[in-house]
Specification:
Helices cover 56% and strands 5% of the residues. It is mainly alpha-helical. A five-stranded mixed sheet has the order 1-2-3-5-4.
């Protein structure tokens, strides 16, 4: 499953529970085919599972286990109402106490999912391969971007894995961490502790709406991350361990942007990896089981992703993607993942691990670490969450709050003076810098705006306001291509800020001006004027 990348967030819930339990009476003799069905469903071999169920159903029609496995098929195919109905019938019919207990637990999750998605809106791609489901309202703004990343990442993953996954591919958007917890095996506390915002389980991708977080999060890369999990489930027949799943998903999550771009750790992840390497505190791969989402802190989750992704990157760079595909095939055949990688690479796993460790980044004592901007969920339904609590330097925070008061009173030049004081008190705070840049731009000084932001863009690549204001400042200076890059990146982190949508719509020769105009209007922005 960073400055809290979902993916770092983007975490796979691998909590194994015996939900597919076949009674002994039905799992004997010529009906032993029924015992194969649960594994086929978990491995997303749904058509083959359907074929076997039809065969078994002809021999023991309406048996409790047949009913149960059909309910699981319904669930994996997204027909939650049918899954709830059939699973209840199976529970009522079984006399197996073990099956009754396991099925009841899964039935409750099915019911929670049906209730949680009952009023969702549904949008399909033109070819029907991708389906985005979301709560009615502003989350509709996510749809065109979600469909775009699904299509592009699907194409890239089919090339990497050597085949496409069966469709349709379903993405569900949940309004809050609480609503995500209700349809998963994770508690709300686990989600908030680890910063988990997404899951891939039961043949669907599930993400938390970026609107639920104070600063948003890289939600499009998170979709790509979770789609990689879907591919890995299918490719390895659900046999890949967590470290292999997460390492591959993290490595590939930006492949949809540019398949030729090298893998680079974002600054916070790199610092954590450097320190853990220096201090001898690297996690073992086994510590990641059964889920990164269960690690005790966001820093631990970030370190885990940094370790496994750099390991997989080293493997691919040295061995090639063909070798990776060969290893996945061995895993699908039942071989241990470490043995599979070693066999495919024709060397020991110890040698693979030694190669990776030799390339781990070393801590540079003379370079200060970027400020930690933890992934923080909104409190309740606040529409304008306050970032000021994340400004760590007291004097900077005091001046920034004075600037905020002046900004709210529509005195941008006076606000800029206070923000400038805050910036001088702490020039490495991205929140302060973005506030100063915003006020400078509103005061008619785009050059000053850029000057405040430029030193921090590489250190804080996931701070959406910085991307937005920089994009608008570049547009004001006529540097439209550069402006477009930053404005799009802002949307890829916080799509609910109308400003970047409106600014993109105003740019000449905008690639999809209609989409941006619609988003600007939906979010209450203005197409007529900038900040």
């Amino acid at each position: 499953m960073t400055t809290r990348r979902i993916a770092l967030a983007c975490l796979l819930a691998c909590m194994l529970m015996p939900w597919s339990v076949t009674s002994r009476a039905e799992n004997s003799g010529k009906n032993s085919d029924l015992a194969r069905v649960p594994a086929l469903i978990e491995a997303l071999q749904l058509d083959e599972a359907e074929r076997l169920l039809a065969k078994v159903d002809a021999e023991i029609p309406s048996g409790p286990s047949v009913l149960w496995e059909r309910s699981m098929l319904d669930f994996y195919r997204g027909d939650y109402a049918a899954a709830v109905k059939r699973s209840q019938q199976a529970i009522d019919a079984t006399k197996d106490e073990h099956a009754h207990k396991a099925w009841t637990e899964m039935h409750e999750l099915m019911r929670a999912t049906e209730e949680g998605t009952h009023d969702f809106q549904h949008v399909k791609s033109a070819d029907g391969r991708y389906i985005v489901e979301f709560p009615e309202g502003k989350d509709r703004v996510l749809v065109p971007y979600a469909l775009d990343v699904l299509a592009r990442m699907d194409h890239e993953l089919a090339n990497v894995m050597g085949h496409p996954v069966p469709g349709p591919i379903r993405l569900e958007v949940y309004a809050s961490a609480e609503s995500l917890s209700k349809v998963s095996t994770l508690t709300l506390e686990q989600i908030q502790t680890s910063g988990t915002v997404a899951l891939c389980k039961w043949n669907r991708l599930m993400i938390t709406s970026p609107r639920a977080l104070v600063r948003g999060y890289p939600w499009v890369d998170t979709i790509a991350h979770e789609l990689t999990h879907l591919y890995l489930t299918y490719t390895t027949q659900e046999k890949a361990p967590v470290w292999l799943q997460e390492g591959t998903a993290k490595l590939l999550e930006r492949r949809w942007r540019d398949p030729r771009a090298p893998y680079v750790l974002e600054p916070t992840s790199r610092v954590l990896l450097e320190r853990a390497t220096r201090d001898g505190k690297l996690l073992t791969f086994e510590q990641l089981h059964p889920s990164i989402a269960l690690l005790p802190s966001q820093d631990d989750a970030t370190l885990a992703f940094a370790q496994v992704s750099t390991f997989m990157n080293d493997f691919v760079l040295n061995q090639g993607e063909g070798t990776l595909r060969a290893a996945f095939a061995l895993v699908a055949g039942g071989k241990d993942a470490k043995e599979a990688l070693a066999q495919a690479a024709h060397q020991s796993f110890a040698a693979l691990e030694k190669s990776w460790r030799s390339k781990l980044p070393k801590a540079a004592n003379d370079v200060p670490a970027p400020r930690k901007l933890a992934r923080r969920f909104r409190a309740g339904h606040e529409e304008t969450p306050d970032e000021s609590a994340d400004v760590t330097q007291a004097e900077a925070r005091r001046f920034m709050r004075l600037g905020d008061l002046l900004w709210s009173a529509q005195h941008p030049r006076a606000a800029m003076l206070e923000y400038d004081k805050a910036h001088r008190a702490d020039a490495d705070d991205p929140i302060v810098a973005a506030r100063l840049a915003r006020a400078a731009l509103a005061g008619g000084d785009p050059a000053r705006s850029l000057a405040a932001l430029e030193p921090l863009m590489a250190r804080y690549p996931e701070h959406a306001p910085a991307h937005d204001v920089r994009g608008e400042a570049l547009a004001a200076l006529g540097r439209n291509d550069e402006a477009r890059t930053n404005l799009i990146e802002s949307i890829r982190i916080n799509p609910f800020d109308p400003a970047p949508h409106c600014a993109l719509a105003r740019l000449p020769n905008a690639g999809d001006a209609a989409t941006e105009r619609n988003a600007c209007t939906l979010l209450g922005g203005s197409l007529q004027s900038s900040r």
